[in-house]
Design a protein that fits this description.
Number of helices: 7
Radius of gyration: 15 Å
CATH architecture: 3-Layer(aba) Sandwich
Largest sheet: 7 strands, parallel
Mean pLDDT: 92
CATH class: Alpha Beta
Shape: globular
Number of strands: 7
Low-confidence stretches: none
Length: about 190
Amino acid sequence: MPHMGRRPLVGIFGSARIASPDPRYDEAREVGDRLARAGFAVATGGYGGLMEAVSRGAAEAGGYVLGLPMRPWAGREPNRWVSEARWADDIFERLKGFHACDALVALPGGLGTLSEATLVWANLGTDPDSTPPLLLLGPAWTELREHLRQLLIVEDRDLALVHLVPTPVSLVPALERALARKPGIARRLG
């Protein structure tokens, strides 16, 4: 992909409902900024909320932003910080786009974010060699992981498939460590 060059692509899942001045919006903007400054390109759903915040942070830092919006969601346009939009016909095509990223990061979100993250998480257990690493950013994911341990049928090895990241400051080093453990995963949306 000529716009991205050789930069690894990090897909971001996050709520469309969280807007500024919510501090989570500012943290998501920081995520985009930090990723772009570290040489990563980002992919988001392309819409508002935390997707917009990440897109904005990355674009303002000179980064490349790929949006993966949905054709069936008529009337919803990608946010203005998306460098390129790749439209998906359904949620499964969109998820394939995210699956083509080098790594995935889940920010705070609702059912959509939860479903995207848990689908990747489950796939890490069944197809770890072709599934990108999944990093869960923020305290909500740490708490949810503990609830899963207590309430569902999961083992420690299942819980260890994801990387818990407490703050945006610690994301880039955690991402670099996760990518170093999966050197064969590198691929780009082409």
